Amino acid sequence: YNKPSETVLPESVDGLQENLDVVVSLAERHYYNCDFKMCYKLTSVVMEKDPFHANCLPVHIGTLVELNKANELFYLSHKLVDLYPSNPVSWFAVGCYYLMVGHKNEHARRYLSKATTLEKTYGPAWVAYGHSFAVESEHDQAMAAYFTAAQLMKGCHLPMLYIGLEYGLTNNSKLAERFFGQALSIAPEDPFVMHEVGVVAFQNGEWKTAEKWFLDALEKIKAIGNEVTVDKWEPLLNNLGHVCRKLKKYAEALDYHRQALVLIPQNASTYSAIGYIHSLMGNFENAVDYFHTALGLRRDDTFSVTMLGHCIEMYIGDSEAYIGADIKDKLKCYDFDVHTMKTLKNIISPPWDFREFEVEKQTTEETGLAPLETSRKTPDPRPSLEETFEIEMNESDMMLETSMSDHST
């Protein structure tokens, strides 16, 4: 693994810029740094010169999956199966195709299993095999495949990263932290690993530590350049927003969530997170708007439903009482201020709770029943904003997406 930085070729390979092995190494570097467009450009050049370059094929297949080029991968996999039916990379390509199209995980496992049968030490097939279980939340089977890949791919941090992810999804933060530490020792400047270490720190309530890891990951990402597939980093920006909210840096939190919204505009969780911050700041009108937007995108968002009800109640409580036109007509000959007019309105037309109390009192006197309390109980003072909104975010507070490192090959 090479950290994101400017590519500088050593002088010893000055005459080898066109060498296919060197080009594949550069493509792999771009792949790990999530610059999939540049990686695809380089691997396509290699595939034109050598359509069956052994080291290039796994990287090229992984890039096609990331860029969602299903038709091209379908054509490539069929060509490989026809020409090299006994080569594991052929069946690896078929398995990746079914894994990419969705809802075909059983088919993907069938072909990936065939690839591992042909060559038990073929690491990429084991990683993809683990992904086929991970997308179905079959954590035990996924970890078994990742453990096998870790034994076969010595020096690669990805199997350790994926094992840590599965432990994190099963709420075993101690083991997750252990495997993330191993991945960090292999690739200490990989932003994906940094992000996951920050997620564990967040789940442990270590807000400052989580913020540090997230900011470090963001710095590494900025070093990659402008050609990166930016939507990969949307969860990192959202998670920075969450940790800033925990540290009561509401303005910074809103800024990070809005940046995430630019990358993936139609994300209901991001809208609910922004609404939550507005509610904590006391901007109930804006909070109601954002929660409505979130529910428009995802109707079954229970957190947004709950918070919308609370924000509407608080917004109504904060708004000024409306003085009707009939009251103004009765008092139009007088020059009263607003406070006096409200007082007179209550005298002329008492509030509903007072009317209900009078009706209840009258009924009690008529029936001769003694009330349980001799005096009317005064309402409790309004709780503070922190007490009112102590409800924790079901999904967003545990990270809008627990992992940034989606299951890619």
From TrEMBL:
UniProt keyword annotations, A-Z: Cell cycle, Cell division, Mitosis, Repeat, TPR repeat, Ubl conjugation pathway
BP terms from Gene Ontology: anaphase-promoting complex-dependent catabolic process; cell division; positive regulation of mitotic metaphase/anaphase transition; protein ubiquitination
Keyword Cell cycle belongs to the record: yes
Biased composition (Basic and acidic residues): 374-385
Sequence segments annotated as region (Disordered): 363-389
TPR repeat start and end residues: 234-267, 268-301
Entry's Gene Ontology cellular component terms: anaphase-promoting complex; cytoplasm
Name of the molecule in the record: CDC16 cell division cycle 16 homolog (S. cerevisiae), isoform CRA_h
Species this protein is from: Neovison vison
